[in-house]
Design goal:
This protein has 126 residues and is mainly β. It contains no helices and eleven strands. β7 and β8 form a beta hairpin. The mean pLDDT is 95.
Length: 126
């Protein structure tokens, strides 16, 4: 089991930027595909973006549209999410996710995610 702790959430105006970080302990992240999901009030948790175990491939939800960038630093056991041009509809709790597999994609069932962080709130004001 890997423990994940997110940070970097907050309140930002439309068009602003935030950088989320996910720090892992208990296991080395190089054995895991990593991703970010989000959940808005009254909605199901949804896939946002992911990076393969190798770090060579990334996968984005359609709504990301080049605004978000995921990256990983296996030496530091961290994953980051740079979010630019934020919109009010991006408001949600963002969760870091780990899966002991080569990939996480938009088709990955959240029930197949082995480890979740506690979440960090992102609020975008209009």
């Amino acid at each position: 089991q890997v423990q994940l702790i997110e940070s970097g959430g907050g309140l930002v105006q439309t068009g602003g930027s935030l950088r989320l970080s996910c720090a892992a302990s208990g296991r080395t992240l190089s054995n895991y595909a990593m991703g970010w999901f989000r959940q808005a009030p009254g909605k199901e948790r949804e896939f946002v973006t992911a990076i393969s175990r190798s770090g060579f491939s990334t996968y984005d939800a359609v709504f990301v549209k080049g605004r978000f960038t995921i990256s990983r630093d296996n030496a530091k056991n961290t994953v980051s999410l740079q979010m630019n041009n934020l919109k009010p509809e991006d408001t949600a709790v963002y969760y870091c996710a780990a899966r002991p597999a080569p990939f996480i994609t938009s088709g990955t069932d959240p029930r197949n995610i082995s480890d979740w962080g506690q979440g960090t709130q992102v609020t975008v004001s209009s």
